Backbone:
C-alpha cells in the first residue's frame, strides 16, 4: 500500500495510484475520510481497516469481472 500521508497535508486523490484512490473512496463511503485526513490512517480501528480492506477486495473483483467481459 501507500506510505502514510501526514494528516495535516492535503493530497490530490486523483494523483494517487488506483489502489490508493480506491482506499480513499471507500473511506469516504464509510464516513471515515474526515477522521483519516485529521488523524491519519493509524487512527482507524482494526474493524474500520478490515472493513475498508474487505470492500477494496470486493470492488477489485468486480472491476476484474467487468474487464473480462
Residues:
Amino acid at each position: 500500500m501507500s506510505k502514510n500521508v501526514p494528516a495535516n497535508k492535503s493530497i490530490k486523490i486523483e494523483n494517487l495510484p488506483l489502489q490508493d484512490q480506491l482506499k480513499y473512496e471507500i473511506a469516504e463511503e464509510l464516513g471515515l475520510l474526515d477522521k483519516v485526513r485529521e488523524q491519519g490512517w493509524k487512527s482507524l480501528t482494526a474493524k474500520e481497516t478490515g472493513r475498508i480492506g474487505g470492500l477494496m477486495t470486493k470492488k477489485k473483483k468486480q472491476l476484474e469481472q467487468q474487464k473480462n467481459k
